[in-house]
Amino acid sequence: MSKFCGHCGSTLADNATFCPNCGAPAVDQAMPQQQQFNQPQQPFGGQPAFQPAMPGAAAKKGMSKGAKTAIFCAIGAVALGLIIWLIIALVGGGYEKTIKNHLKSYEKADYELFSETLTAGGAFSSISGSSVPSASSFNNRVTDLKNTYGDDFSISYSIVEKTKVDTTQYLGLVDEVYTVKLEITISGSKKSRTSNKTCRVIKVDGKWCLSGAMF
Fold first, then answer.
1. Which of 18, 43, 85, 170 is 20 to 30 A away from residue 8, measured at CA?
2. If you ran DSSP here, which 8-state letter would residue 120 be given?
3. Taking the model in full, what pTM does it have?
4. Pick the residue with more confidence: 184 or 25?
5. Around 26, how many Cα atoms within 13 Å sit in the side-chain half-sphere?
6. What CATH architecture is 94-210?
7. Which burial class, exposed, middle or buried, applies to 99 when counting CB atoms under 10 A from its CB (0-12, 13-18, 19+)?
């Protein structure tokens, strides 16, 4: 009987104790076992046997193109919203910011800030007929407020009503105009008072201003 390697199926000499091919111990075999060792089992037709997918294999394929597009669109929308918010915060803030700065200018006795809230600029200023009160007039009014309410007086407000005004009378030189009714409270160590005031805010070349001083 011929001897064959039980590991790789190589033919061995009758007196061999180890396979010269793979070094495995020699044993008596009736027929070669090449197809029984170290070979993957295949079904009929020579096709590889089915192997179950490893866990996580589907995840490695990644997201679909539609899902990626949706994520990029969402990120873009958030970024655009932030940009718009920053532009509004840095450039203006609307007519409410102008009103707030106007009242703050009295608290801080800041004539420069006071003037900015009343300056429209452009062609509109030349025909509107309105002018910014002088620094001495402004300082006198601040002194009156301190004498009445105290040196530490502060001014707060709330918008009661806002009405849009037809800009036809402004000959197309302004963007928007509103008449705004305010409830203003002046508080200080001497006295506190709440009253209503009406002002007009005008937008010219993207900038808001008041048509005149409140006090």
1. 43
2. -
3. 0.56
4. 184
5. 16
6. Roll (3.10)
7. buried
Number of H helices, E strands in the chain: 6, 7
Confidence of residue 82 (pLDDT cuts 50, 70, 90): low
Please name the residues in contact with 188: beta carbons below 8 A apart, sequence gap of 6 or more.
Answer: 146, 148, 149, 150, 151, 152, 153, 154
* Type of residue found at 72: F
Contact 103, 157 (CB under 8 A): yes
Residues with Cβ within 8 Å of 167's Cβ and at least 6 positions away in sequence, in order, are 174, 175, 176, 177
Q: What is the pLDDT of residues 128-153, one digit of tens each?
A: 545 788 999 999 999 999 999 999 99
- Spatial CB neighbours of 38, under 8 Å, sequence gap ≥ 6: 7, 8
Q: Are 191 and 150 in contact (CB under 8 A)?
A: yes
Portion of the chain with pLDDT greater than 90, in percent: 34
Q: What is the CA radius of gyration of the chain?
A: 45
Distance separating alpha carbons of residues 168 and 13, to the nearest angstrom: 116
Proportion of the chain above pLDDT 70, given as a percent: 70
8-state DSSP, 211: S
Please check the confidence at residue 179 and state whether its pLDDT lies above 90: yes
